[in-house]
Amino acid sequence: MRADYSTSGTASSPWAIVAAVLVGCWVTGVTLVSQTAGWTVDQVLLVSGLDWSVPLWPLVSLITVLVIGIAALPLAMLPRSSAVRGTGRAWLAGTLALGALGLLRAIPPVHHEAYLAALAATATLLALLAGRMSHPLAGTDRPASGPAPDPAPGVVAFAAPAPDPAPGVTAPGVAAPGVAQLPASGPSVVTLLALAAGLVLLLPWVWLGALGGLLETVLAGLAAAAVGTLAGALLDGRFWGYFTHGEPPRPARLVLLGGLVAGVVLLLVGAGTGQSGAQLPLLVALPPVAFALAALHALSRRHPRTAGRTATAWLVGLTVFGPLAFTDPEEISLLLAGGRDVPFWVAVAAGAGLVVALVLAIAYGLLLARPAARAPRRSVAAVTSLAVLVAVGAVGVGFGQPGLHGERLFVVLREQANLADLPGGTGKAGRDARAGEVYQRLVATAERTQADLRRDLRRLRLDHTPYYLVNAIEVDGGPAVRAWLASRPEVARVLLSQRLRPLPAPAEPSGGETAAPNGPPWNITMIGADRVWSELRVVGAGVTVGSSDSGVDARHPALAGGFRGGDDSWFDPWNGTRTPTDRSGHGTHTVGSAVGQGGLGVAPGANWVGCVNLDRNLGNPASYLDCLQFMLAPFPPGGDPFTDGRPARAPEILTNSWGCPPLEGCDPGALRPATDALEAAGILVVAAAGNSGPRCGSVQDPPAPYPDVLTVGAVDQQRQVAIFSSRGPAPSGTTKPDLMAPGAGVLSAMPGGGYATFDGTSMATPHVAGVVALMWSANPDLVGDLDRTRQLLRSTATAVRAGTGSAERVDACGGTGNVVGAGLVDAYAAVRAASG
């Protein structure tokens, strides 16, 4: 038997076969590298605080198309073998589809519904275009045997015409001689088998993933259907015809060669499907589907009542629907990659999809592609599909995360409370009086201005949560609700309030493996806090520090004695826990540096209260506001913040080792009314500068840029600015950061009683909060006197080094203040100055 690659009567030269293999490897390698590298760069930019991802993906798509097209175009035009040319044309068509779909990633990830709608429309348009470009070739006259004629010069066909079937072989959709063609009364056997396979491939996502909102899910279904239709247009009967012609029929060649070529096409289509991150599982699970499609096509050639394109659309569409609908691309992120969070479960689902696809490819290949294979009865195929559908539903309800878990809307109203002409006075009594007045004015303004909007939201049965610290409401709803809200006269703007989707199993709690400190660690001695305890006999007694973070482990031996207690010292808006807990460890670590006992914290005699505003390391405007609002006027569990708040129980100082970037839904002014109100109430807000250094202008995520916030950068053990510490100026031109504190290699508490060393301005921030607690403990008359406190901190700060190339960095950032602030906080000098 002659070994050839031709399926249309023209033998392929060995060089053409080698060229096809090399081009296929090139296309596969370039696609995998470009997509994984693009996502990696995207994540590095995100972690670094840069927002260059919008132009990144169109650039990646353009480069990918050019690099692949240079190799695929000669293969599509030059070889004598129509099979090799058809292979090149299929890959070239897939590359063009990747380029067109990849351009859609210019849509920001926060607008996921808009992206899905654009994906559905673009994929549908490409499918129609593919059909139109290949249609003229279907009627090209050619001999009954021999090579198919080439298309007109300069025309690149998406698919080639199917050759005439060999004698005794029935072509797809054509009745065998002497056999009457019966009208189809329902889906064909091939379509039902494809449906069953697609549902099996969907199973891991139903089990491990979670749906978004209703509109998001519907659009994901439409987009998946459009991508499946596009795959059906690219891999239609004319494509498979390259691998099925001959005497006698050779189904094995169809499955192996056709599956390999089609797998590269599906790889290209999958690479363009989904926003950054969602395409990664498709790179793994989608290509093996091609072998199952090849086996189904082998079956369809022997049984005329088939629907090849429909079968491809179902199988590919269901495979695509999994990652599109059951994951949020914003959560496939390095920000959540520290444990068994979304990236881990996406990898598990993708691996399971790969295994399932390979098993289906082998099973369908062995059962359906044999020359003597007979199609199962349609009733058997229908029952099988129905059984798989029921199993998928049972898994989703019984073992998955049923329900809808979409994003919400954060509605900021135009009118904010007037906080001018507040009562004066400092000290605890004066601060409490101011806080009480601020609380009353904020609540009164919110109740008055939100009344009409709340009534309309109740009438429309839209779940909502009102806020007063910022006059705002968080609302359930999609783009239509957003447009309606934005059109109302009392609304200033509408932001997205991101919500994390649930996990199939709780993330493993973080712990610490480092030994407990034997005496004050370096960060405590560097700022002189140990001298304050021993020489000045001040430990922070009588002052309370509020922590808004991932939580606090109140059972840790360094923190148990400092918890203020009562029914208004803990709030968890995410999970509703009634006692202080922390699975992440970030909040426990920061509170330990502020008030931890045993030499761990700056003010070991101060009390602490806590609130959870981060769930799995991400938050949103509403969750950040939940905690800031609780800090102004704590309330008991189940209480109404508008009526049950207790401003006299507000902590004096707030430590905030977080920022709210656009990824989470904040704009630059989202939390500004909140910090203004806390300032007016005499509560000092201390916040981390961020970890986007050494880039200038990287103090950008609220609340760090706000003038009334004490913003903290980080130094290392050599009193040098840490390279990751964000630099100013703030977007408004304000000089930031304000102060520096130890933030590189800081030892502190972790959940479960352990200890760990972390880096970040998050670690530096609680040092400054602890220093203020010492100052106010030494001189209670300073409580609430924020201007005087900030002046004392700046005047007693000590010099730090900006690092290598310091002159250039200082000049680039607009001066020393935007790199080192006033310098390194000095606890000993600040407490002595506060004591007079």
From TrEMBL:
<keyword id="KW-0812">Transmembrane</keyword>
<dbReference type="InterPro" id="IPR023828">
    <property type="entry name" value="Peptidase_S8_Ser-AS"/>
</dbReference>
<feature type="active site" description="Charge relay system">
    <location>
        <position position="549"/>
    </location>
</feature>
<feature type="transmembrane region" description="Helical">
    <location>
        <begin position="380"/>
        <end position="400"/>
    </location>
</feature>
<dbReference type="Pfam" id="PF00082">
    <property type="entry name" value="Peptidase_S8"/>
</dbReference>
<feature type="active site" description="Charge relay system">
    <location>
        <position position="586"/>
    </location>
</feature>
<dbReference type="InterPro" id="IPR036852">
    <property type="entry name" value="Peptidase_S8/S53_dom_sf"/>
</dbReference>
<feature type="transmembrane region" description="Helical">
    <location>
        <begin position="90"/>
        <end position="108"/>
    </location>
</feature>
<feature type="transmembrane region" description="Helical">
    <location>
        <begin position="280"/>
        <end position="299"/>
    </location>
</feature>
<dbReference type="InterPro" id="IPR051048">
    <property type="entry name" value="Peptidase_S8/S53_subtilisin"/>
</dbReference>
<dbReference type="InterPro" id="IPR015500">
    <property type="entry name" value="Peptidase_S8_subtilisin-rel"/>
</dbReference>
<dbReference type="GO" id="GO:0004252">
    <property type="term" value="F:serine-type endopeptidase activity"/>
</dbReference>
<dbReference type="InterPro" id="IPR000209">
    <property type="entry name" value="Peptidase_S8/S53_dom"/>
</dbReference>
<keyword id="KW-0472">Membrane</keyword>
<keyword id="KW-1133">Transmembrane helix</keyword>
<feature type="domain" description="Peptidase S8/S53">
    <location>
        <begin position="540"/>
        <end position="802"/>
    </location>
</feature>
<feature type="transmembrane region" description="Helical">
    <location>
        <begin position="12"/>
        <end position="34"/>
    </location>
</feature>
<feature type="active site" description="Charge relay system">
    <location>
        <position position="762"/>
    </location>
</feature>
<dbReference type="GO" id="GO:0006508">
    <property type="term" value="P:proteolysis"/>
</dbReference>
<keyword id="KW-0720">Serine protease</keyword>
<feature type="transmembrane region" description="Helical">
    <location>
        <begin position="214"/>
        <end position="234"/>
    </location>
</feature>
<feature type="transmembrane region" description="Helical">
    <location>
        <begin position="254"/>
        <end position="274"/>
    </location>
</feature>
<keyword id="KW-0378">Hydrolase</keyword>
<feature type="transmembrane region" description="Helical">
    <location>
        <begin position="114"/>
        <end position="131"/>
    </location>
</feature>
<feature type="transmembrane region" description="Helical">
    <location>
        <begin position="189"/>
        <end position="208"/>
    </location>
</feature>
<feature type="transmembrane region" description="Helical">
    <location>
        <begin position="344"/>
        <end position="368"/>
    </location>
</feature>
<protein>
    <submittedName>
        <fullName>Peptidase S8</fullName>
    </submittedName>
</protein>
<feature type="transmembrane region" description="Helical">
    <location>
        <begin position="306"/>
        <end position="324"/>
    </location>
</feature>
<comment type="similarity">
    <text>Belongs to the peptidase S8 family.</text>
</comment>
<keyword id="KW-0645">Protease</keyword>
<feature type="transmembrane region" description="Helical">
    <location>
        <begin position="54"/>
        <end position="78"/>
    </location>
</feature>
